[in-house]
Specification:
With 376 residues, this protein is an all-alpha fold. The chain is built from 14 helices and 4 strands. It has one domain. The longest helix is centred in the C-terminal third of the chain and has 34 residues. The N and C termini lie far apart (57 Å).
Length: 376
Amino acid sequence: MVAWLTDFLESLGIARPDDIGWLSVVFTFFLAAIATWAFIPHVRTFSLKAGWADQPNSRRLNQVPVPNAGGLAVFAGTLAALILATLLRPILIDWIKAEILTILLGASLLVLTGFIDDQFGLPPLFRLAVQVLAALLLLTSNIEITVSFGGAAAPFISGLITVLWVVAITNAINLLDGVDGLAGGVSFIVSVCLLAVAANDLFLQKAAVTIILSAVAGAALGFLRHNFHPSSIILGDGGAYFLGYVLAASSMLGNVNLTTVFALLPTVLFLLLPVADTAQVILRRLWRRKNPLSTPGKDHLHHHLLRRGVSQRWTALILWAVTLATNVVAMAVQGMSVVVITTTAVGIVALLAVVVWRRGRSLAQAMRCAEAPPSE
């Protein structure tokens, strides 16, 4: 039995199955999931008391006020898991610590900015400036998309592409957060698939990304337990910014080296759904001669499905499936084996199925309790 497990772990790309390193990644994932799941009810209760909620209006789908501070729980769950995992298995290499701390610092900045925007509103240019600042912060730890063209201008081009990538993905995940469970589910799928690719890399450049992605994937899964339709809490801008920023930064760890701009396409495949959604929205608004950054509208992919009579639940499930399909292709392009791709896909489907089933079961129990006659 032990030999079979060792062989299976080696087939997944784990170089040292007898070491506890891979167990620390699994531990971080489940710790983040449990911590986030446990934090959400407390954050929700306090949010309702404090008035931190999205009110119903013509642009939103919710019919009652929904707490919008879920991102605080996702961030807290991620941070708690990373701290405990690091205490149990200390990171001895300083530059790996620097990468993790840099990403967390930039993420903290965006969580705070998004949360303030949710509650009080911030000018779009200010939010964009903070996003650019958080992207520039990554460059201080050499977390960037490196180009090998442009001659003397190559460092500038690298920095420009890095900033554009981070800002684009950060906003793409935020714009995708229009249906219960959609942004959280997409972030979970992408995180797990990027983690599978990182775990197959034997180089230390991937050490930081594995620990961060395991925590973020777990936190997204724990959040979905409360966010799948009908959600009791939503990410808010702070949570969506956090997930988008971490995914953008993690996709660059280990150094993405471009010989041409098109060499970024394999990385784009992991985040194809949010990228395509944002791109089609921008093109549609430009075609109508409207400012794509300041013009609100119901022109995202999930809005098109809803207009065709698809429910919120099925809209999220369909777009989850599309995301998983593009990530399977992305893993194949990255050279992952059939065993790794199949195991990753089956694991994702199984975990999401458990979340959807548990969410449906808890709602059914709540309805039965509400319909039960009062005891004398």
